[in-house]
Each structure stands twice: as C-alpha cells, then as structure tokens.
Amino acid sequence: MCIDEKIKIGIDTYGADNGEEIFVLAVKEISNKFDNIEFYLYGNENKLSELFNKYGVKSSNVFLVKTTEEIKLDEHPVMALRTKKDSTIYRLGEDLISGKISAIISAGSTGAILALGQLYVKTLDGIKRPAIATLIPTEKNMTLVVDSGANMDADSEWLLQYAILGSVYYTEMIGVDKPKVGLLNVGVEPTKGNKLSLDTYKLLSNDSRINFIGNIEARDITKGLCDILVADGFNGNVILKMYEGVASSLFTVIKKAMTKNIMTKFASLLLKKSLKNTLKKYDAHEYGGAPLIGCRNLILKCHGNAKKNEICVCIEQAYNFINRNLIEKFNNSLRG
Amino acid sequence: MCIDEKIKIGIDTYGADNGEEIFVLAVKEISNKFDNIEFYLYGNENKLSELFNKYGVKSSNVFLVKTTEEIKLDEHPVMALRTKKDSTIYRLGEDLISGKISAIISAGSTGAILALGQLYVKTLDGIKRPAIATLIPTEKNMTLVVDSGANMDADSEWLLQYAILGSVYYTEMIGVDKPKVGLLNVGVEPTKGNKLSLDTYKLLSNDSRINFIGNIEARDITKGLCDILVADGFNGNVILKMYEGVASSLFTVIKKAMTKNIMTKFASLLLKKSLKNTLKKYDAHEYGGAPLIGCRNLILKCHGNAKKNEICVCIEQAYNFINRNLIEKFNNSLRG
Fold first, then answer.
1. Partner residue facing B267 (CB), from A194, A242, A267
2. pLDDT, tens digit, for every residue of B196-244?
3. Residue B125: is the preceding peptide bond cis (ω within 30°)?
4. Is the dihedral of CA B179, B184, B187, B190 positive or negative?
5. A244, closest residue in chain B (CA to CA)
6. Class level of CATH domain A1-127+294-336
7. ipTM score
8. I need a labelling partner for A115 at 20 to 30 A (CA). Which of A24, B30, B76, B245 fits?
9. Domain B1-127+294-323 is in which class?
C-alpha cells in the first residue's frame, strides 16, 4: 500500500439490531479523526441519505453505495448469496475482490459473511479454511479465541493454521511478541482429549512458528493463561456463548441480591461506581469486531446488537489491520 | 431388593484432597440417620482405625475394609487397575460386581473410575458407553449435563442413550415428570452444528422415550431452559469447567471492586448476607456426586475437593438411587 493511498472501508449498513443510524453516527465521528480513510456505506439510498442529512454528514471521504436487497438472518447463506446479487453483503464482496474497497465491516448474517469469505473472497494460498477470531476479556489480558464459529468439523491442520494466523494477528494488533498459544482441552496432559485435540497437540508442539504452551482447560480460560486459544468452531462458539451466558446469569442473581431490601439497595448505590469501572472490561462491545482470518482480504464481523461505539472500534481495527499489512504478514508467517 | 435388606455402600477413602477424615465424619453423621445402610470404608487400616477412635465411630453398620494400594491421579487408569489389585478402586469394583456392596462412592481418579465402569463393572444390556451425569445450578432448576466427561469421541446413538438414561435419572432423583431434553449446539435451528449434533438432532427428534425440546445454545444453559443437556464428553466437560472458570473469575473481580476502599468495604458488609444466600445454590458441593450412568451398578464420583457435607449428600444420593431401583428403571426405559 502506497503511503498516500487512502484506505477504503466498505460498511454494510443492514443487519444491525440498532439499524443504519449507528453506522452513520460512527462514520461521522471517526471520519474527522482519520482523513486517510474513505468510507463506503452500502445500503438503502433513501434511508442513508435521510440519515446523512439528519446528522449533517458531508465529509468528502464518506460515500453512499446504493443497494436494493438485504440478506436476512434466517436465510440460507449460500442460497442468499447466489440469488441476491444486489444485497449489501454480495456487493461488498464484489468490491472487495475487485479492489474497490480494502475491508468489509458487517453486523449482518454470520453465515452469509462466512460463505462470502470462503466461497467468493477465498482464502490465502495454503489456508484450508478462514476462521473467526474473537477477543475475550480475561483476568489478565485479552485472549483471542480462534475459531469461534466458522468451521464446525475441523481437522488438526486447520487448527495449526488458526494458531499461526492468530499469533500474527495478536502480535500486530495487541502488540505482544511471541504470544502464548493454548489448545482448548479437557485436561492439561498431552494424553487427554478427543481425537482432534490429541492430533492437534502433536502438530502444535512441533511447530516453531508459534509459541505453544500446551493444553488449556476451560476453567482456566478466563484466568488469561494464554493469548490465543485454539479450538474447533463448535467448541470455540460454545466457549464464547457459555462465557456470555454465565456472566449474564450471575449478574442477574447478584442484582437480585443487591436489590432485595432497602439496606442492600443502599449498599449497591455505594458500590455502583467501583463495580461499573471493574466490569467495563467485560463489555464485549469494547473489543470491536471479529475478523475472518485466513481470507485474502479483511472481513470484519461486528455484533448484531452493536452500538455506535463498537462500530468506531471496528473502523479503527480495520484501519490498523490494513495499515500494518496484516495480509502480507499472514502470508509470510505461513512460509515459516 | 427386599424391603428389610440393608443397602451396602462402599466408600473409597483415598483420593480426596481433604483426606480420609471427611468420609469418616460423613459416615458418623449419616449412619445415625439411616439405620438401613451399611457403610464399607475402603482404605488404610491404621489411618481409618485411628479416625474411628478419634471420632468415636462405633456404629454396628460401619465397617472398615483394609486395602494396601492407592491409584494416584497421575497414573494411567487402565494400567493402574490391571496392576493394583489391592487398590481401593479395584477392590470396590470387585465387591460391586460380586454383590457384596450395591454402590461405590469415590473422590479418586476419574480416569480409573471410568475404566472401572466401562471395563469391569460393564454397561447395561444395549448401552454403548456409560456417561457422567452432572447437575449444574441454573437460574431456574438444576440441569443435568450428560455426558460431562466420560467419552471424548461420541456418536449420535450414544447421545440418544444419554438422553434416555438422563431423563430417567432426572425424573426419579429430582422428581420431574417428562423432563425437558436439550441438545447442546451452536444455534437453535435443526440445520446448525457439527456432524454429531446434526445427526443427534434427528435421532432425538424421533424418539418417543424422551421429551426433546431442541437445540440449546451455550448462552442459554444457565437460564435453565432444559432439565437434561445432552453433549459429547468433550463438550460437556468444557461446559462444566467454563461455568466454574467464569464464575470464579467474575467473583474475583467483583470482590476486588467490593474491597476497593473503605466505602465499598462498608457496602459489602451490608450486602454479605443477601449475597451469601443467593450464591449458595452456585456451590457445586451442594449437589453431591455425579453418577456414571449406564453401568450395571452405581458408581458415584464426588469432587476431589469434597468436604464432609458433599459426602453426606452423596450417601443420600446413593441411597435414593438404590431405593428407587434406578438400574431396573434404566433397563425398562431402554426397552421403550
């Protein structure tokens, strides 16, 4: 990338629970901060024009790309991509492949985004499957869970590739040299686990491209023992959702205990600020989106219930990803 | 079982982090409550005699069974069972098979207990593999996770059997008619998941012996949507440990926020009782042990870090299991 060249980010304004508004607001806020980014907002022309007017979005680096179709969450992803050629996701894919844009940000159908990555944008040479890489908060730093839901039935070679690409991503985006790679397993011993984890353990142990520290039991994930946690897409997804579910349930019961009577309510008031500060890092929206690593170009998936702030973080993430030439570094890392 | 016949429970006094003492104390406490149980404590003769004297255990229904070997946690389970014929676990197995005792309670090596169940005690006719069934607390009732760690690479037929046996166990032990069976998956739609979950969904949907309610995402487990959660042993184990890890990490950070300064410490004092009451149900020790369901006789695994109370709960659990003829009911349920 030439130093003067603008980074062109394509944004899917469909598919977020909070509608197109969050994208327009995020772009308005961040377009002043980065004058070397061009923003391409794909979606409904009338709706977006209206929001541009409403919020006074007039920057010379913000563009509207009219599309007429939308891929809904309940549609079959591959079928939808085949038939809806004027959907935001398909059009973004086309423009990413042709080089009109350098990155896609979308809160839309995960299935459609995965299919776009795997079947249209395609993987880097030698990469078997793109994987979703999601950062989760731990007691120490953040841990990158790869794969957190792209490929259900994986084999050990794919998991090794997740480890390699995940390490590059973590080093470049979080700034940690030789990040620690752990393998999700039911015990720390190399002899524990299912066929996949036994096979993967052997591969990871013998690969000098990564800093493999061994098996990680699920009870130790939130202690932050590793920087990158490698798992198949089924287990990675279970990990993420279990984290979300347990945290949500515990907060529900703790809240109940804190509002039980007038004394506990008073105590809760005194604790509010300290608790809020402490728990801020457990807000998934603080961490931006999850890239589909292993593709030839950047596709970044943000949460369906994202708010403006998360989209701002995603834009910065995409900017850093491209600015640091992650794709080139992925390619180099694969060569060893 | 004849109504006057005593229920003979064999207890492994090795393998618990807290030593033999917790078993002796539990038996002392509970032997007065149940005069139709005979307790057989397997372990070191000197150590147990000493503890019997120390705590004045003189009941006519408590017996000491001398063994000279111990299977350690880091030993290869199958090898250990083959070579240590005078270990508590092997001896308990022999006596369970010969009918000298009707149940085993152990806090020892899970691997050795599993191997004992699978290779020596053996499974009920038609049952492919015994599974560990663990109760976990949810916002509503308790959910039984089957399999929570016995069989790593399972097939869909095994999972169907877990669902059937788990339903019988839940009905008889928790007292819920037609308990709801859920399948752990990454989405609620029948088309989501890996090969195992897709295959299992079909089998569970078409079996009238269970009340199958569909896929359960990990984020909904602690909401208590189902009574029995079916998963392969790898995923079931990940679920349990993730639950434990997330809860522990959150309590750690919340505790930090609550002891941050003098004001938060004061507030915490006011909240202490209410929080303690609310969180009591999240103490794993309240739920006793996890049976290895599908075996010809009862083997109950308790936590390595069990205290006296958990052993008391385990003894009652074993008593109820035998008293309600669970093995016979398992057999009947399999016939449909």
1. A267
2. 999 999 999 999 999 999 999 999 999 999 999 999 999 999 999 999 9
3. no
4. negative
5. B219
6. alpha beta
7. 0.91
8. A24
9. alpha beta
